[in-house]
Amino acid sequence: AAAVTVSVDPTEVAAATVTAQTLTAEGADGLTTITFLTPVMAAGMQAVATVSAGGLLSDGFTLSYEAEPTTVPLITHLEPSQGKCDGSTVIKVVLSNFRLPEVITDIRVTFDTSFSFEIRSITTDPGMRVEGTMDETVVYFTQPPSSNVGNMGIFVYTNGRNALRGTTTFLCTVPDTAAVSFIRPPFGFTGPVGTSVELGLAYWGGLTDQTQIYVWPTAGAQSQVLEIVSSTAEQTA
Hints:
Layout: E1 3-7, E2 16-19, E3 22-24, E4 33-35, E5 46-53, E6 56-57, E7 61-64, E8 74-79, E9 82-84, E10 90-96, E11 107-112, E12 117-120, E13 129-132, E14 137-142, E15 150-158, E16 166-173, E17 179-184, E18 198-202, E19 214-215, E20 223-224, E21 234-236
Parallel strand pairs: 9-16
Antiparallel strand pairs: 1-2, 1-5, 3-4, 5-6, 5-7, 8-10, 10-14, 11-12, 11-15, 13-14, 15-16, 17-18, 18-21, 19-20
């Protein structure tokens, strides 16, 4: 593997050389990718680094060193914030003040639904993905199925730093229960011809054929849906 040479001001710390951990050959974008571990340096320092391989020397680039977070991470964004309890929802969590581990499989996502406690990681959730910068970390994962309706606690942390965990909640809803978002008009006329009413539904199972949907205005009375206006996440019937 190629050697990565990290050079800094010798009056502060001696130059250090580390070896690349992995090297990915040139891809369709024309780039060769390497990974390496930074040598230990104090927080606040900046190191000028170069890559040397096969007698070639790269341009210099800067590595900045920051102190490891010692307080809990903050989850700044959760998308979506609610979904069905059937375990089909891919959740995106954005964290700040979070230290990415050297091994991504050390990231843990814990789900607490009051009655169940499940831990998932990239090793058990093939759909899990992690993206990170010095400013924020983005984790994608699949919400596990749960038989308990309501808020599901989500905790994101690094294995070995269990006390420093980001916390948020995901609202788990019953797949077979549709929530009424709006109704217009909220009344019907008493004449012999029925009144056309528009109804917005959320979490209704993704039906696309209006003949599959029926409305019971009163006991014993049944109305058939005339049309489905849209088929977005919040449906209109």
